[in-house]
């Protein structure tokens, strides 16, 4: 299977149905992108797929999409790429199996920015909130994003006015990685007042991401569909300010449905913009956080809940994400079996079996009678 | 047993050991107040009781205590009185059995104010917080207490400057019942700036309560000991503002240990005076509340989470507290046995057995094959 064919097929598939197209995604998973695209093009597909692709299947805008994307400095990242954020997006597959309707993985993502999308989405935190934010909200959105940036935690948001913009700016001020996930194409120039901000983010090692083909204008329903990607691409979502009906609450509830961490910032009880946050906390749908360290503690970040500028280098810093995950799944005092470690780490059993001997060679793990344990000096 | 003898004995016992004197309370429970007082006076008691009473057992200040109390308009309320708040204070006994060290019931309480202490403590809410409160905290303490007062919910607090004072004033403004529980005698004139406020509370149908004999000056440890009474005499405690080491957190943790509802008001994350509240909420030791209705919902008040001024009279309004409790313990669709109802209501079995036929006569309960159920038209 030619990599270019795959990319072309996925670009076609992204355009042929409005996301999230669960039936189409399932069809692609079954047949592979190239065969699926061919069959959709010919109308040779099950009725539910036909129904959602009927209107656009005749359009062949793939070449044009790539040309427009290149003009905007964007590329198409596909699940077959190494940089695909497979681990965070796995939450969508798992939630879909649990019957969460909106949990449909993207078929591919248009990305502006040189950063690897997988690296940007590694242990990232979403900072979201209302457009009609107060000074209090914007101030703290910027402060929290700054604090995350300083600690090397990528900050995702939606590029909207209000909390989103303040979060991106705060992360930029810390020279942190910050990523905007849009409800329109990466070249849509929306919101107009944030075009320069988005350019600055891309230039500073961040990214602008969208599953919508070049030229797609913003739309209300697209913001809601986009919210699932902000939730899925991060470990946790912090709602800074939200009215009782804010879209940020939608991101929060999606994050919760995906099994991600949901956090909310409290504020004055007299502020309608904190009312949504207070509801989330009161109903135990979000954990209250009042400092950046609490954010890191809540998402369960390993060893970064401190000021990294003063932190001595850890030996585990050089482990890849899967190796680190495997290492973290080891107990210090008791042996664990391969399958226990797989369950604990969330990694496939065969991957765990490959990684454990590597961890042993590197001095992180010891083989015991009943399985594996952490090597003490490594902690 | 003469009622005066009991009152005299308990006045003596209150003075003979510094509360909370667990060994003495147990001794009194075993032998009754009159016999226990006699034996303590003679030094004829177990070593642990002797130890805590040795220093003061020779003092006979009972007549003087009653004279000073009368001068201050106070009376001694004892467990043998009908107005004794036995139900709320039961939490202390239950917690003591679970091993909560500070959960020692008071031997009696000095009370200024004509209100029945039992009535004042019926479904009351404590509103507490830091002395060094902010304008935000004082404003909301007063607002919440006002809202509770309007809805007929008694407000308890500790008469300190800051949040406590604001809470008492707010309840007064609503012509609500408000009760101060002191860490000194009711006649100690403390805090000096609140003497007029305390007098106003007593005059307006509220009360000032203390387990310390007349003349006892305030002391740091007495405030902590007093906090258990604020927690015990109410259904729930709302912490309005608290620094990370505030005494209000002590009241909150005691309330939690007693199985009472703990609530906290959120505030700006930049405010050190909200930090204690945020910690309580974050650690799930308190429920976030941002409105008075949420307070009532959280303490589980039956039918008063609305504006009582617009509420039509309920038939159950005329039930006494124990009858109401028994009624609430009935299910609508299934029969419950006497002992199930006793367990559910927290009332003694013999009391439940006496009340059920009364509820039947009044049309609130029906006798079924397997026990009792609620009569439908009564809901």
Mind explaining what this structure looks like?
With 379 residues, the first copy, chain A, is of the alpha/beta class. The first copy, chain A, has three domains: 1-60, no CATH class; 111-299, Rossmann fold; 315-378, Orthogonal Bundle (Arc Repressor Mutant, subunit A), CATH 1.10.10. Helix content of chain A is 46%, strand content 10%. Chain A has helices at residues 3-16, 22-31, 33-42, 47-53, 62-71, 86-97, 117-120, 135-150, 163-173, 195-203, 220-232, 247-257, 272-282, 292-299, 321-328, 338-345, 349-361, and strands at 74-77, 109-112, 125-128, 155-157, 178-181, 207-210, 236-239, 261-264, 287-288, 365-367, 372-374. In chain A, the strands form two sheets. In chain A, strands 1-2-6-5-4-3-7-8-9 form a nine-stranded mixed β-sheet, sandwiched between helices. Chain A has a two-stranded antiparallel ribbon with strand order 10-11. In chain A, β7 (236-239), α12 and β8 form a beta-alpha-beta unit. The first copy, chain A, is globular and about 60 Å long. The N and C termini of chain A lie far apart (43 Å). The interface between A and B is medium-sized, with 20 and 20 residues.
